[in-house]
Amino acid sequence: MDAIYVENLVKKYQNGMQALNGVSLTVKEGEIFSLLGENGAGKSTLINILTTYLRPTSGTISVFGKDIHNEAAVIRSGIACVAQRTSIDTHLSLTENMMFQSKLYKIPKTEAKDRMEILISCFGLERYLKYPVSSYSGGVKRRLDIALNMMSNPKILFLDEPTVGMDVQSRMAMWEMMKKIRSDFGTTIFLTTHYLEEAESLSDTICIMKDGKEVLQGTPHTLRQYLQQNILKITFADKGAAKIGLKQIAKFFSGRKVVLHEEHLSVCCENSQVDLKQAGHLLFEQNIAFMGIEILQPSLEDVFIRLTSRGVS
Ligand SMILES: Nc1ncnc2c1ncn2[C@@H]1O[C@H](COP(=O)(O)OP(=O)(O)OP(=O)(O)O)[C@@H](O)[C@H]1O
């Protein structure tokens, strides 16, 4: 069964802002799923809907087979969400924080104590026990916050930008923690991030969002395959000439992604050398003036920018 199934989800805020524009995605049970997107893409809105804080305008959502419209309470009892602002109480000790959390979820005391010990040991938090929580670094506070949220043994853990603003070491510790959550507890993790490297090294599935809709979803392997696809960049003297070139190139390379960017075109390659020859031949044949053709090898960042930047389809 899918952990999360979303189809054609729309969210229009009261002020008329449409934050989600028919997004569809699937999260498999037990996987780490990363949602990538630039600011304003709709990531927080989506998390808020999936965690039942916000109501969708339309669309289908099921979480472990339960419909979000009719069974929100059941869904809520099986999930946990770690927001960017930590929910820990710095006046309480680490263990008091964890036991307090267990009370909120009405977990019997003995069971809560056992679970707390497992989580403290699993996440390497023992060495912080003797210090006051207020003295913890931002990274350790964030890890404690996640441990708190694991007290209720959620089936899905939502993490909104879990490593934002962290130094490299804290980020690595957080990555280890996420991998342990998946391997030791089998929890499905749904996270948002701005860091491509994080999404690539951690995730089973990555979904890139733009303007409230998914633009690419797949395994890091699929994304890498996408990366391996070279881009043919054809430069023209100006935008007008590029538009004329676009007509012919798009017709010739029908079925391929051809994008107009100001005074140049980009064409996704199948065989870059052959494509380069054919494009050059076509432009000469049609007497379309151009400034140059080159083969580009995009990085993951290039792909992300290309898929998410304004004005690019
Ligand atoms: N309560 C609200 N009322 C009206 N518009 C909103 C509200 N919350 C968010 N928006 C708008 O909806 C769009 C999507 O916002 P959202 O916060 O979901 O994006 P995001 O991808 O999480 O961005 P960020 O990475 O900056 O957190 C934005 O244009 C935002 O201004």
Automatic annotation (TrEMBL):
Residues 4-236 form the ABC transporter domain. InterPro entries: AAA+_ATPase, ABC_transporter-like_ATP-bd, P-loop_NTPase. The keyword Secreted does not apply. Keywords: ATP-binding, Nucleotide-binding. PROSITE patterns: ABC_TRANSPORTER_2 (PS50893). GO terms for molecular function: ATP binding; ATP hydrolysis activity. The keyword Nucleotide-binding applies. SMART domains: AAA. PANTHER family: LINEARMYCIN RESISTANCE ATP-BINDING PROTEIN LNRL. This is ATP-binding cassette domain-containing protein.
